[in-house]
Amino acid sequence: TRYSKHTTIASVAVILLFGGWYVYRNYVKKPKEAKATEVMFRAEEYFRLDSVNKALNGDGQYWGFLKVIDKYGGTKAGNMANYYAGVCYIKLNENEKAVKYLKKFSSSSKPSQARAYKYMADAYGDLGKNKEAVEYYKKAAYQFEKEEAFAAECLFMAAYLSQKSLNDTKSAIELYKEVKEKFPRTQQGADADIYLAQLGVYSTGN
Predict the structure, then answer these.
(1) Secondary structure of 106-168 in HEC code, one letter for each residue
(2) Whole-angstrom distance, CA of residue 82 vs CA of residue 116
(3) For the segment 168-193, what is each residue's pLDDT rounded down to a tens digit?
(4) What is the model's pTM?
């Protein structure tokens, strides 16, 4: 019947789609991932040694992060290469490039994503783009509040820039209060009282 014919065609299409996906995953994607991880190995070594230029550009024999991104940008290793490249450019004080690569990085790991956001905030701050810096310090803090020292530092930086660079007293007060309430055991939690007092807010929070 026409119905059974359509059903058969649909079944064959599903089988072909699944088969195609299986072949792609096991014979294209996995080997590509493995190769990308392999070729990035030396760049990671240079990164750990703080040999930033070699980490980025390679040494003539082994690839740097930029080549990995170019050739294997869609892989997990390529994604990590964006993170490493961004950090390298911060070390070189090339903050526009740092932002460009860090924006391409994304991770389901909250600590990794939080650190990428903080690096972006640092880069924006160095570029004088303080509004963007505040937003990314807040993102970093909210992304990984479990690590109190890290989150408190990021949120405090957002408060400090709001006060000193953006002259946004209202936001600064809210952020200092948030630092104090969420992270009272940190240095930033204690320092928030000083800044709240400077802004005419009682240190008790009243």
Answers:
(1) CCCCHHHHHHHHHHHHHHHHHCCCHHHHHHHHHHHHHHCCCCHHHHHHHHHHHHHHHHHCCCC
(2) 10
(3) 999 999 999 999 999 999 999 999 99
(4) 0.82
Upper half-sphere CA count for residue 196 (Cβ side, 13 Å): 22
Please list the ranges in the chain whose pLDDT falls under 70. Answer: 1-31, 202-206
- Residue 184 backbone phi and psi in degrees, to 5: -65, -20
The residue with tokens 């059974």 is 4
Closest CA to 180 of 128, 172, 10: 172
Which structure tokens are listed for 39? Answer: 């070729």
pLDDT of amino acid 10: 57
In the structure encoding, which two tokens stand for residue 178, read together? 């948030």
